[in-house]
TrEMBL record:
A Pfam family hit: ROK
Native source species: Microbacterium trichothecenolyticum
Classification via InterPro entries: ATPase_NBD (IPR043129), ROK (IPR000600), WH-like_DNA-bd_sf (IPR036388), WH_DNA-bd_sf (IPR036390)
Similarity comment: Belongs to the ROK (NagC/XylR) family.
Domain of life: Bacteria
Gene3D superfamilies, alphabetized: 3.30.420.40, Winged helix-like DNA-binding domain superfamily/Winged helix DNA-binding domain
Annotated protein name in UniProt: N-acetylglucosamine repressor
Length: 389
């Protein structure tokens, strides 16, 4: 006699496989799903029908350009399934809704003249969710909230142990946001989430060993992908590259006595070089491009110090690709091959012989998409077991 519990477990795993495939790869034909999973056509049709009933995928007419064989309907993640995502920083709170199809239908950057508290962060997110539900997201199925925080986040319970630039210590942000919104909430380090996003969908897609560095208003954080999996560490605190002390070859390049990397390679120093108090990433990039020799020299100084920090990471970790996001992408984009050459001058030749240095291709979306991926985690693991809004 067959075990109905075991059969149901197999079915749930197959539902999860299909949903994850269309989430990661985009719209796929039923024929492609059959090929990718090894399941037969009738099983695929049955599973897709269940995901449609659950409001997780939609089926579209087959591609009219297809001329050969029987047309196969196309299955896509339902864009109405969404996660609310947020990135608190020292100068702004960015809040967005990210769809299971990776669309971002609404986004708001709330500029601030003071440091956010955890309570204010939760309140602002809850206010945006309420307003969007009454407007742009009236038809959305919101599955949860994902937060990308520039600080140490305990993996076990989402407690923000230390976000030094925000001056948060042992902040129960997950619980505050969950209570304020009524939604399941996940909290992670911003750079670790950015690394996951770039690995799945961006500049590091297809690579199993990745170093990602994120430059934001709060400094420099990092994320690591090792053998295709995020490396979190015992407590979830890996990737604090900004707190390392790189060697600085020229004393003239030093700006902070005994400073760490993020004291020297700094968004605040770039803003000062172009005479701005605050700016989003595209505005800062445009200002640096238009600025004069003084700003150019500051960019060059930061690139020299950054190259040493990257060389240390390459020597220690031997990644296939290094991805730079935020203001680090801005200073790298001036001359990516040139930055690569600076890094290789300081590494063991074998460690860097196949190294690729890239700018984050998800740009300003990277942290939001990474936070959404965390919020979608339970749904993608068990499509039938997650309650939706």
């Amino acid at each position: 006699m067959s075990d109905p519990t075991a059969a149901e477990g197999v079915r749930q795993r197959n539902l999860a496989r299909l949903l994850r495939l269309v989430h990661l790869e985009g719209p796929l034909s039923r024929a492609r799903l059959t090929e990718s999973t090894g399941l037969n056509r009738s099983t695929i049709a049955d599973l897709v029908a269940e995901l449609v009933r659950e409001g997780l995928v939609v089926e579209r007419a087959p591609d009219p350009s297809r001329r050969v064989g029987r047309p196969s309907p196309v299955v896509a993640a339902d864009a109405r399934v969404m996660a609310i995502t947020a990135n608190p920083e020292v100068d702004a709170l960015t809040i967005a809704a990210v769809g299971l199809d990776r669309g971002i239908p609404v986004r708001e950057r709330i500029e601030l003249d003071h440091l956010l508290s955890p309570d204010e962060t939760a309140r602002l997110i809850a206010e945006r969710v309420e307003a969007w539900r009454a407007g742009e997201l009236a038809d959305a199925h919101i599955v949860g909230v994902g937060l990308a925080v520039p600080g140490l986040v305990r993996a076990a319970d989402g407690l923000v142990r230390n976000a030094p630039h925000l001056r948060w210590t042992d902040a129960p942000l997950r619980d505050l946001v969950a209570d304020a919104t009524g939604l399941p909430t996940v909290v992670g380090n911003d750079a670790a989430l950015g690394a996951i996003a770039e690995h799945l969908f961006g500049a590091a897609a297809g690579f199993d060993d990745v170093v990602y560095l994120n430059g934001g208003a709060s400094g420099i954080g990092g994320g690591l992908i090792v053998h295709g999996m995020p490396l979190l560490g015992a407590g979830g605190y890996t990737g604090e590259f900004g707190q390392n002390r790189p060697g600085i070859a020229s004393a003239a390049d030093r700006r902070a006595d005994d400073g760490v990397l993020e004291d020297e390679v700094s968004r605040a120093r770039l803003l000062a070089a172009v005479g701005l108090h605050a700016a989003d990433e595209p505005s800062l990039a445009a200002a640096l491009t238009a600025a004069g020799a003084g700003a150019a020299e500051e960019v060059a100084r930061q690139r020299r110090i950054l190259s040493t920090a990257l060389a240390n990471a390459v020597n220690a970790l031997n990644p296939a690709v290094v991805v730079l996001g935020g203001f680090l992408a801005t200073i790298a984009a001036v001359d990516v091959p040139g930055l690569g050459a600076l890094v290789r001058e300081q590494t063991m030749s074998a460690n860097a012989e196949d190294l690729s240095i890239r700018v984050a291709s998800l740009a300003e979306d990277r942290l939001l998409i990474g936070a959404a991926e965390a919020a979608f985690g339970d749904l993608l693991r068990d499509p039938g077991g997650v309650a939706r809004d």
